[in-house]
Predict the structure.
Amino acid sequence: MAPEAITTDASSDVTITGKIYTRVRLATKSDLSHIYKLFYQIHEYHNYTHLYKATESSLANLLFKENPLPLFYGPSVLLLEVSPTPFDEPKTTTNEGFKPVRKTFDLKFPVVEGQVEEFRSKYDDKSDVYIAGYAFFYANYSCFYDKPGFYFESLYFRESYRKLGMGSLLFGTVASIAANNGFVSVEGIVAVWNKKSYDFYVNMGVEIFDEFRYGKLHGENLQKYAHNKDKNGEGSC
Amino acid sequence: MAPEAITTDASSDVTITGKIYTRVRLATKSDLSHIYKLFYQIHEYHNYTHLYKATESSLANLLFKENPLPLFYGPSVLLLEVSPTPFDEPKTTTNEGFKPVRKTFDLKFPVVEGQVEEFRSKYDDKSDVYIAGYAFFYANYSCFYDKPGFYFESLYFRESYRKLGMGSLLFGTVASIAANNGFVSVEGIVAVWNKKSYDFYVNMGVEIFDEFRYGKLHGENLQKYAHNKDKNGEGSC
């Protein structure tokens, strides 16, 4: 289902020129409504909105369980926030266990934040902060490694914030978290038709393995296996 | 490093004819030495033994943490055990939280267990049980699903136990666990050169997506990102 209709009252647009200040931080439950909208937008980008089944409640359950997995082991969302004014020095450690990363970008062209109310950050008292994009990842495992790695599930930026180099900051932050916390790799899949995305990951140092194909058992094909439920122990697979 | 030299004293071989009894169960810490040997063998299969860095201790840390993740969320190993004699009815629930699955196979040719001592199961009092293979998987997440799925990392059988249909039992058991516990998919990657494996997964109902490629940031390319360690908060990605 689609998020509430998005207002585009241009009178409230914020135009950022010169410098844009960014902060990367771990998402918290207070970001749910923004994550819900960003996940909807990535469905739009792929023409998949008919498949968008999430609700804020199901996302809360997926991303912010009462008894969360250890830091970075469960599903983890990093948000990139932007502001026309500088961010304060982050506290040494936040409640979320990850110290936010800040970076200032010099803008070659003005950036227009056209959905001020919809994407205003609720994280702290600074009121001119907007959510620009996210990275989504979680711990993965392999018989070929003696330690966990990360599976990098998706990276997304709202249209206003593309082509600014922010993707490198966000992916680079995930890679830094991996390298600095003993995770041995950052893996994922990339669409071959998305040349910009493909080249981006290669430039970030990702090695592409042409000899593998991604496969998925899902939908009806998966549910066929549910019939074993009552026969568990009888072994009639 | 290679496991201890494997004795091949044929006098202790066990030849199984007629029927072979199998049991699929969740691995426990008592299976560590067997998992270690099976992981070594899958490295041999891929000519990767020079990359095998695991020790029984590192595997214990990877697979059997003191404070484990919830059932099936962390790295999970299902073992397929074989025996020339029937398995007892499994207890309704085991300590591990998964009720073992049994299946009997009619053999068209004799099966020789040539490493009786190396792969004798230590799981229960039944002494004629041998570890034949494993499946390795863990929970994964996607912005395109409102619930977790499984990532199916690897499936491996010792040479004596191939071509018997046991792969279907093991993969089917993982699929059943997914379908019966609200996990929405079983995903993974498959090598295009491994036609037998590729066809196996397609026959099991797996949809292959030709438009994706698997990529990995690892080794030196990943360690380049570690320099941000001391600059966390300064944002110099």
